[in-house]
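FAQ
Q: What does a multi-component entry look like?
A: The components come first, one per line:
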Amino acid sequence: MDHVASRRRFLGGLAAGLGAASGFGFSRFVTPAAAEQLRRDGKRMLVVWLAGGASQLETWDPKPKTETGGPFLSIETSVPGIRVSELLPRTARLMHHLTLVRGVNTKENDHGKGHYLMHTGRAQGPGASHPHLGSLAAKFLAPEACPLPGYVHITPGGGGRSGTEAAFLGPKYAALHLGNGRPPANTTRPGSINLAGDAARHDLRRRLDDRFAQRRRTAETEAYTSTYEQALQLMEKREIFDATKEPVRDQERYGSHDFGRHCLLARRLLEAGVTFVQVSHSNYDTHNENFSFHLEQVGEFDQGFSTLIDDLAARGLLRDTLVVVMSEFGRTPQINYLYGRDHWASAWSIALAGSGVKAGMAHGRTNAKGTEVTDGQVNAASLFHTYLKAVGLDPRDDYEVDGRAIQIADPAASAVAEVLA
Amino acid sequence: MPRPRGWSRWVLVGLAAFGLAKGRAGAQDTGALPLHERIDRLIEVGREGTLAAPAVDAEFLRRARLDLTGMIPEADEARAFLDDPSPYKRPKLVERLLAAPEFARRMEVVFDVMLMERRPDKSASSEPWQEFLRDAFARDVPYDELVRQVLRADGADPAHRGPARFVLDREGNPDALTRDVARLFLGRDLQCAQCHDHPNVDDYKQAHYQGLFAFFNRSYAIQDAQGRILAFAEKADGDVTFASVFKKKVKHATRPRILDGPELAEPTVAKGQEYRAYPADKVRAIPTYSRRDQLPARLTSGDVPEFSRTIANRLWAMMMGRGLVHPPDMDHGGNPPSHPELLALLTREFAAMKFDVKAFLRELALTRTYQRSSEPPPGASAEASAPEALAVAALKPMSPEQMAWALMQATGLLASTRKTVEHERLDVDPKFRALAAIDAKRKAFVDDLVERAIYERLKGNVRPFVSHFGGAPGQTQDGGQATVDQALFVANGQPIQGWLGPSGGNLTGRLAALNDASALAEELYLAVLTRRPTADEKAEVAGFLAGRDKDRAQAVGELAWALVASTEFRFNH
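Then the predicted structure of the entire assembly, as tokens:
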């Protein structure tokens, strides 16, 4: 016990030293005690990313029987006065857990730039890049010694790491992408090495490292050796990436489609203690056949998402987990000649639930045809402030990067107070 | 390990003679001494007792090999160096490494990463760019000339597509270019001075950003239908005016200007004569007077001390593990160099040696500072042993490329590839091998041919190391953060597991054929860690193999892996 405690103190001291030496530190970021409090609180985040730009009119802000409304009707929800598209029957029954933000105006109609804007709360400029929400969570909410990755992204496509999401926070806080829900690479022992051999080679590695460290121990050498211990722990926990270990009944409830499986995997990861999970559902970029496409796609979303919210609530996880459903933008109220809707950032919606936000309300509104925000307009930067506040982080704190102080969230914006609990 | 005492005195005498013999005599005082000696004196004055002991031969060999050729030596090479009794073997080694084709390759990687920061190939391909860099260092093109070539290239001439990657894969964006010219060539990140004077750095002015921007403000990118940048074009008009966002009413104007230097005097071009090629659809505009063309010559004119200072600091960081100014793109009054006089000396001397990178690195490699042990002296405080004190050699995490090539060397893949390549290229005609023996020039030619062929075969192996150990594209690449997926990659992934399987003359194949545990330990330690094992370590190896007769090949693979995964291997120490 003593050994563990002193080792921890030692590591703490080293970490401070490393921050100073590499020119990277956190000037007035939450005090160590406050940071510890946050970690103990176990705040988590779940982002459901509807890639390509989901239509607000076929989801959260329907305008039935208008020239822009399309063929679908709206339905009542569990909250009197709030109606959503009839494509969301299961989610509608859980509206008392959700908050809709219907006055989103992000003014950015480009996929790449909209993606950047919604993930970082800042407009993309040449030469500068900012950390994604998930990297922030991994940095500030995830327990330092936890072997699990802080930022896991379940994608419909490829896996691996690109490292770009963390920007100047460094690759440790970048997303681990689980391609089509597959477990991360290299988490099983090579076939040529048996259990005893694996233990033997790691033992020898530890002895070599201890000898080296007797005279040459730095924060970097310490960080390096600890990654091997974390790797071994992660290999032991490899099953948390395998949603087929969940009861068959649950697998059926989430749906037999990829998105359903990915939502079940998200539940499993959040329960296992992963701090930030993003599930991407692809692809909502419906320039043609918007309606038939949303009918199918939103159906999958409705099943997977509603089951996940239901479970998080039933298991007491929703209280400490901020849920965000968003896209790079919404879709045009005008229906084009291919029955499609095009990119539209000036009046669209996102949905929130869980930690730090109100439940059972809709904030902001658009006009009758959905062509303009008429009340409670918010932009991407103010939403980003809101997410951070909702999990107990102060968006006005600074990162200090190479001698520059950079406010965590865009200084020109502030949180949407109306939706914060 | 026994530490050879007294070698340093001998080497010093040798080195001094070496320096003088090369005729690098300066004007006054210490100027008569070679640069490496003047560097050391500036660092050592008043520091007696806190300096680390000289690095042992093994440590020096490994360090110099990694820094100058990007990989570790083979076991036999290490053995030969360690057993060489010559007091001059260190300067001789430095000369040999600087002359090797692997030096040009190493510098190609260093400058590629420094200038492109692992941006993906978008509009320009990496290959001609890397070939351009390798060729420049193989021919000892001075650094100022290299920069001129990079900044002049606009992508239009297919023959100069290589250097044009600098501009093309920054999207031909004037702001991105302004920022990176300031960061990479002037040591100043002026990003936050674009819209107002820098909020935290008094020395960084909006006028600095805008003055540099004025070199690029008339330039624009020409794209093809897929959005690939084909070339950089330029208009004949357009001026830079700016105002601070805090004082929007006070307008300023600037012509092209480097930091606090004078604004460029610009010629008046007669009306109707503005263009050599008028802008039109699918025509690349070429103005009679180009603002952008003025930058390369101005920047390297000798009137801009920041230019020499920045590269001197970056090359110092490459060798010593940390810049005298750190981070290298935050050079300003509030972040002074750890050794101001030393940086001033390096700035002057690098310009005086006409930006000869090889000559400069030679001097750094010959310093006692570079050749110090990475073990702090007993009882030294953490502060006295911090990297910026230069009293103890820094532990440098290997770059992704160094990791890949060091592993290919350690596991024997490089040697077996060399054998194949030499057989294919040189045994075609018996005269070829004899050719190399005629003189140094012919030998260099043959060495170069072989290095290129080996590189072509093995370069694909580097990619997974870059994706696991490299920084994010467009971000500073120095340092490197340890992550769990790196450890998983080393522990369980390919290609390392494959390289550790016994095959023919590779490392584990050789080891498995050795019955004597002590001989096995020596070969293993020399191949992976570039040193001989201690008695304890030999016993440890023997203990590991005891009782593993039935699966000896497995056991040998596990042993080799433990060394490969050790801190001692991971760091250049």
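Q: Is there any commentary attached?
A: Sometimes. For this entry: Residues 1-32 of chain A have pLDDT under 50 and may be disordered.
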